[in-house]
Amino acid sequence: MSELFDAVDALLASRATLPPPAERKRLRAAHGLTIDEVAGALKVRRATVSGWESGKTEPRPPERDAYARLLDKLAELYPAPTDVAAPVQDAAAPATFTAAPAPAPEARTLSTGPAPDAAAMTATENTQTPAPAPVAAAPAAAPSSARTTRPTSTSRRPGAKKAAPAGTPAGGSDPRFENGPLAVVDVEDGKVLAYCTGGLVLDVPAKSIPALVDWTLKEAKLGQPKLSGPGRPADPLIVLTEAACERYGLPVSLTEEEKHAGRIPEGHKVIKQLTRADWKLTKRGFGPWARIYRPAKGSDRQCVQLCIPSWNALDPRFWGDAAQLPPAELARVLGVYASRVMTPRGSTAVTSLELMTALHPPTHAVRDEETGVLRQAETKTPGSLGSDPVDCAPCEAPDGHPVLNALELPRFHVRGPAEKLFEEAYDWARPMTDAECTLRYLVGLDVNMAFAAGANGLTVGLGEPTHVKNPVFDPKLPGSWLVDLSHVDLSKVKVGKEWVELDGSLLPSPFTPKGDRPTGPAWYATPTVAYAQELGYDVAPTEAWVRYDNGRYLDAWYSRLRDAYLATMADLGVDADLSPEDFLAAMDGYKERDPELTIAVTAIKATVKGGIGKLRERPRGEGWRPGERWRALERPTWRPDIRAAVISRTRINLHRKVVKHAAFTGQYPIAILSDCVVYAANGPSPLDFLPYREGKPLPGGFKLGINPGLVKHEGTQSVLWGEEVRERFNAPELNLARSIKDGTVTDVDNGE
What we know:
About 30% of the residues lie in helices and about 15% in strands. The chain is built from 21 helices and 24 strands.
């Protein structure tokens, strides 16, 4: 009888009811799942799931029942919209912008009204889904009694192009955020004005910082929808100019003592005003990026982020001269970044980690089976790092980490490769050969967003490490492996399926940052050990720390930053589908076409590198002593193992291209620094030595283009220049990649 029941169950499963294709996609996106994750769980190809979501194909047994079960569970977590105030804009409808100068912005005084009903906000949040839509440009006209025409103190340059945003909307599709994600507050002729994205200017009635926070939350309609289903909307950002600081009783600049502390004193009058108004500050206090909040009551979150450029909130290393821009221009730059990446939450590095978390929120809501009320789930959101930090493995710990206390190492002991994981970017160079000295030029290639490309598709650990003795190496299992790779001989390696012979003395080792051949066992991240196998050599680890709870955590982060970068570069005239010749021409002088958008590009790239670096943030003052915990260790995103895996894969990606190029052309690099590689050539252009055939590059080699992982021209100098600077500093292995861009060498290479 049981067999008959099983047969009946199978028949029912074969006709399992599925929602429409668009709803299938909505439910997946609402939970922050990628197509690859769904495909992996159901053991089908990525294209299969894509076909189900587009309606081109329908699932068949046995996958159909499992797919239906997944969608049913997701539908319980994210009910279909039933009463949403404003529909989400169609993702297929691109925003259009003109290249004409922006008209004089409108100044609007918004009427005071009650805060949105908490229940209504919850309903809107639960039904909001990520979808590309424009920045809130010109909002609906206010009643004539509330409008005045006010000339601005600045006007957009003739011919300047407003950036068409990419990715998640900055507020245009949500009535709560119709004025965009942020505002730059300035004082002009005694009037306080808030410059928003899209050229909008609002009158600000607030006469104190507490009143400004109230106005921002109740009237300004600033903020940004959440980036994933279980997440939350971004808090509004208020940028204070020097004039605004003076108006609200804040110092225009910080003293040396305040700069060192990163905040103004606790007894400052503005902090006292906030305390009296029941506002709180985070543990970082009132600094360049201050967060002012009240404890959340249910879904009613009250929090405003302040940014003070004159306190060095916009570090010129990552934001160029953004801090010196007039208010309207600064609002444009930050608005582009906010719409395409996310509303800044601090430095580009801090924002990068916040983006990772926003795309994979650690917790999610579930409906209580008894009461029907939504509550926070007791388990972490699948694919996230969770809410609690985890300790790294001893080999992954930087010096001074408390996990090393148990090892009882001698004082001043310096851990070697067999004790410490040392996955870093390349800093390698060699003397030029006699044949290379007869050539005329040194040409530098730079890999676009190399660390982002290294993160794409990378499986990383999501939870705690597990210690294993004498493991069998698994290239799909993220972790750190103690293994001897000194037997890998670069003079004979596999390239694809074929063995090739190379001049190994002209190549850096792929296993060490300095390019030296390993001399014995050392700790390596999974991508490094997997590459040794790819080159045709056996590996036999003696020990490992592996993470069985793993996933492609950085995929959504990569996609968001890639799209932001490509969209902004396209606005600057550099498209992704250009021919090699047109690409080189488009890159020539692109920064001068729109300096403001160039700032945004720099910030986007800094967000990539800064985020990867901050995964292993070291103590920053705090009175820290070796062996004690420091503040960053309390973050779930303090993950040196993830940082190591990304850097490992980035270095391996570059080495793979170098080997492919050498096998095909006989040309070898003379210097590599991180994502820049230098070759000697007869001509000054990359096309003078890259093996293009009828416009097509060498498969697996270097390809010119703007996409992450492709390369652009970094700079060209003469061979005589290279020999002269090496002779001047008596440094035959001076890393010329460090100065190939402009040819300026001010001191001997110190490795920094």
